[in-house]
Amino acid sequence: MAPQHKHLLNNPATLVVDSLKGLVNLNPNIKFDEGQRVIYTPPTQPRVALLSGGGSGHEPAHAAFVGPGLLDAAVCGNIFASPNVAQVRRGVELVTGDKGALIVVMNYTGDALHFGLAAEQYKASGRKGDVRVLLVQDDVAVSREQGTIVGRRGLAGTILVYKIASALSDQGANLDNVEDVAKYVTSRLGTIGVGLDHCHVPGTKAGESHLEENQLELGMGIHNESGTHKLEIPSIAELVDQMLFKITNTNDPERSYVPFKGDGSDEVVLLVNNLGAISELEIGGITSEAVKWLQSKNIKTRRVLSGTYMTSLNMPGFSLTLLLLPGKSESAKYSSSQILEYLDAPASAPGWSWTSGKEPGVVGEKVDEAAVEDKKGKEVDLAPTDPSEFISAIKRSCRALIAAEPELTKQDQIAGDGDAGLTLEAGAKALLKAIDSGKLNGKNVISDIGVIAEVVEEDMGGTSGALYSIFFAGLGKALRDAADAGNKTTTPEVWSGAAAKALETLYKYTRARPPSRTLVDPLEAFIASLPSKGLNGAADDAQKAADKTKELVAKAGRGAYVNQEDLKKREVPDPGAWGIWRIVDGLRGFEA
């Protein structure tokens, strides 16, 4: 897996400023000192100002967190490089009033030196207000021996520190109190990150991955530092288990940083942070597993925050943070409810994700179901001419689709979005399961076709699932009409007439008509030939129509958005059309 080295920008040298200008366009409530690259909100009332910052590349941290209830200023360096002293000093000057300022930054050498020196210079200048610096060190991957001199790295837990400190400042607290709560929160934070690869810095040469295709790295920082361990990619449940164990384990003298009791009294805030390039779909699964893990360890989760808070540019990875809340038996300055009150306090900034302000929902919780009137139609019998052959034909079609999955997937990777083979395979496997369970049994074709429509709708999904489900729903309606007209069995004439009506039903909901390079090409060819040529001849015509799609310009479906000349050159049939051919080939006798 190679790093994501493609970027959209004008010039790597101006990327940071261009991005900050975009942030100002987005949020008219903030100001931008372009010369020193400071995003800030001018003071409107006396409060302890909260500042943060560091190298860029961690967006939305920290500039996008400037706003009410969060930061008063963020000072932005180059990508992964600390801002200089003059920049930091300018940020302090812009927002510090009589009540002083607290600078909350991640523990990296450059940030510690530059922000610290700027604070000392400001105090030495005789200006109003004291200025203090707090270094957040929440990374549990760094051992005590490793961090003997420099300490641990600061990671996504930094966001929670200044959110809580800012809320206390909004209540009118003085600098001592704001600094004290920030220090307390910092002492109860643990974070660990994981990456499928390193990120790529715009303007630098693309490098080769140092990980194998099946590896990930545990203990990642946010500046492309290597992690502490390389692992074969496990399931997300196994990975979350390893990560949260490292945060909560108190038996490792090198990495036991957070005072968990492990007696069922621990309460936490969980922060699931996207490091840049993990899909929202995956983040949802990670969040679910993290909450489940905490519940299994009798650790009460009081709040869940999940989203993109602190990135490492486009790193495909995520981090987990736990904030251990004050215990009821502790003689702490703060209660759990106080810390949660500060965390839940309103905040308005582009980077602050939605939070519920409540404990996580209970998965599987019983819900009241509204009474639904039973509108099921009367049972009508229509037997297949040969029940055994009817079921065998369905099985053959299913096996044909399963066998064709690789070729359908390959076709769709070129002509669509790559999921056609898996989608049809899922529907086929679900139908075989329905046969094995007896739900689809060959006794009554009307109810059996209804089962097929239901199964493909539920198990295939997407456009294909909808099209197939509509067709089979129309087929079921046509067969019911045939039974009402006095037919007792499904003769070839009954099947031909019902299929034609089902196609009419499908055409109500799709504009695709042959020749269109879609599944309707072989489907219509098959249905049109069925009365005169029978099953074998109709299947041959379906194959010809499916093969003909190699030459056609797509007028509908996913293929309509793909380069048409490229499709023609590569002679790729439409995967949906090819799937129809595989189905009818199964009906007439395909054997895997």
Automatic annotation (TrEMBL):
<dbReference type="InterPro" id="IPR050861">
    <property type="entry name" value="Dihydroxyacetone_Kinase"/>
</dbReference>
<dbReference type="GO" id="GO:0004371">
    <property type="term" value="F:glycerone kinase activity"/>
</dbReference>
<keyword id="KW-0067">ATP-binding</keyword>
<keyword id="KW-0418">Kinase</keyword>
<comment type="function">
    <text>Catalyzes both the phosphorylation of dihydroxyacetone and of glyceraldehyde.</text>
</comment>
<dbReference type="Pfam" id="PF02733">
    <property type="entry name" value="Dak1"/>
</dbReference>
<protein>
    <submittedName>
        <fullName>Dihydroxyacetone kinase</fullName>
    </submittedName>
</protein>
<dbReference type="GO" id="GO:0019588">
    <property type="term" value="P:anaerobic glycerol catabolic process"/>
</dbReference>
<keyword id="KW-0808">Transferase</keyword>
<comment type="pathway">
    <text>Polyol metabolism; glycerol fermentation; glycerone phosphate from glycerol (oxidative route): step 2/2.</text>
</comment>
<dbReference type="InterPro" id="IPR012734">
    <property type="entry name" value="DhaK_ATP"/>
</dbReference>
<keyword id="KW-0319">Glycerol metabolism</keyword>
<dbReference type="InterPro" id="IPR004006">
    <property type="entry name" value="DhaK_dom"/>
</dbReference>
<dbReference type="InterPro" id="IPR036117">
    <property type="entry name" value="DhaL_dom_sf"/>
</dbReference>
<dbReference type="GO" id="GO:0050354">
    <property type="term" value="F:triokinase activity"/>
</dbReference>
<feature type="binding site">
    <location>
        <begin position="55"/>
        <end position="58"/>
    </location>
    <ligand>
        <name>substrate</name>
    </ligand>
</feature>
<dbReference type="GO" id="GO:0005524">
    <property type="term" value="F:ATP binding"/>
</dbReference>
<dbReference type="Pfam" id="PF02734">
    <property type="entry name" value="Dak2"/>
</dbReference>
<keyword id="KW-0547">Nucleotide-binding</keyword>
<feature type="domain" description="DhaK">
    <location>
        <begin position="11"/>
        <end position="352"/>
    </location>
</feature>
<dbReference type="InterPro" id="IPR004007">
    <property type="entry name" value="DhaL_dom"/>
</dbReference>
<feature type="domain" description="DhaL">
    <location>
        <begin position="388"/>
        <end position="589"/>
    </location>
</feature>
<comment type="similarity">
    <text>Belongs to the dihydroxyacetone kinase (DAK) family.</text>
</comment>
<feature type="binding site">
    <location>
        <position position="111"/>
    </location>
    <ligand>
        <name>substrate</name>
    </ligand>
</feature>
<feature type="active site" description="Tele-hemiaminal-histidine intermediate">
    <location>
        <position position="223"/>
    </location>
</feature>
<dbReference type="GO" id="GO:0005829">
    <property type="term" value="C:cytosol"/>
</dbReference>
